[in-house]
User: Fold this.
Amino acid sequence: MTNYHFGKSQRLLKPDEFRQVFDAPLKKVHGEHLLVFVQKNNTSHARLGLAITKKKLKRAVDRNYIKRITREAFRHASVEMGAVDVVLIIKKNYTKDWDMYAEIVKIFEKIKNSYPKTTPNKNLIPSENLTTNQQNNAQERTPC
Assistant:
């Protein structure tokens, strides 16, 4: 079962964490209204930081709406992302005709393709670490 939670461990919380991403991003992903900075991290999962300013979005309703849909899109996309820090900022003012969710999902797809989650192949069994009984069982299960 896949875990689609968005807990504290998946957020950038401290100013130093944001600064590290802004100072030396590995990649910048540009959208029409959004700019996303990406940098690898030392954790085993992706983390999200939101830098949505009052200067670009005057109304708190608009700022909170963008934060909410960004967190939701990230929650689904982070399952397939590698260990990266992602910081999203707004480039242009919000307009009602802008499909934010589609743009955010498109950007997260680019990040997933660039930094996929690396999982060990569970089908490969290193034979030197197995006993002879386990090796015989593994050989019986493998199709010829």
The radius of gyration is 20 Å. Residues 8-141 form a domain with the Ribosomal Protein S5; domain 2 fold (CATH 3.30.230.10). Residues 6 and 55 are 27 Å apart (CA to CA). Helices lie at 15-23, 60-77, 100-114, 132-141.
